[in-house]
Amino acid sequence: MSTAAINKCPIPDYLNEELIRETLRKEFNSEDIVVEEFDVSPATSAGDNYMSDVFRIPVKYRLSPTEQKSEHISFVVKCLPDTGSRGPVIDELNAFHKEAQMFTQVIPKLSKIAGDEFFAAKCFHTTEAPNRMLIFHDLKSLGYTMANRHAGLDFDHCAAIMKKIGKFHAASMAYARENMDVMKKYFNFNMFNPDVDVRSDCINVVFEKGLGTLISIIEESWHDFDPAILEKLKKLHPVYVKKLEACLTQKFEDGFKVLNHGDLWCNNMLFKYDPTSNKLQDVVFVDYQISYYSSPGIDINYALSNCPNLETRARVDELIGIYYQSLSETLGSINYPRIPTMADVQYEIRRMEFFSIVSVVSILPITMMEKTDTMVVNFESMVDEKQAEQSRKIQYNGKKYQAIVRPLLKQFNDRHLLDV
């Protein structure tokens, strides 16, 4: 397998000693911090981040000029630029302010509610000057690493994800009861901002044109594919984005709501393993920039569409059971007044199941893309029509992708999700 072209990101000059010193000052509430050494390098490879540029900064410092002992810490700095194609989209999604609120205010409280559960890296500092940045504790330095997204995740990894998100959702239910104003102010939408009159074309390029390309690829090279399903996809195409918006923005008073992560695919989770046995110990999530207070069916459908490998997809019901056990046990431990039933969870999954189609058509192909020497995978290539078309052809022709998606499209058809 060839390696992808690396989208090299220049090191910004604002990732400097003053920023590091300010971060440490804030953490230790001290003006005496001495930064001895630091190094800045890209923290991710091409295709691992889209909306942001991420850098790793290992730092050697002393707590004061008279302190002899040096300390070490590693930061990860997430920069959300205001230029290029990404800037307007970040603004439209309110991504920076959402994520800053999540990491500095919400997640620490959720962790406490759930018995100090580790939901995310500690955020040391956020700033909008000279650029939008969030500065985190480096999860790699704590033993966390990214799994191989191209193969899909096995049952144990998916079970860990569902257990963790069950705890996260449960804690958010308790938090929301006392902080509904926060939910309404920051987390009232996912991708479709109700306060934006003229939206960027990004969603149409990524979603509608993605389905169009899939239809073309099926016609050209997916031999023996059911023509009835192909015809339904063609009829769905013109209303695809409208149906997505209707799914994600639906208002409801029945059922139950949680604070969703909003973007639970393999790139937004890191895993920790026992150093001796290599047994999976924990999972933690990153990139809480489109979190959304709504049905838990958003996170459940999204994760179960994008994360499992082919073998694990036959055990989806078990994974839903693990989610429910985690949700109900956590709610029970905090004496939540009404614990949803498994039937309630199943209802929420059905409420948001159209989101599964979008995940399979638009996100799963990125997850499973078989890399090439010529394709630079980044946000610009996703929203540039010519580059996006080129990458989708590679994605939709992937053998692993087809092995998973052919039966999924049949399932979607059987459940009438493709009907217009």
Automatic annotation (TrEMBL):
Top-level taxon: Eukaryota
InterPro entries reported for this sequence: CHK_kinase-like, EcKL, Kinase-like_dom_sf
A Pfam entry, by short name: EcKL
SMART domains assigned: CHK
Residue stretches making up the CHK kinase-like domain: 134-333
Protein name stated in the entry: CHK kinase-like domain-containing protein
Source species of the chain: Aedes albopictus
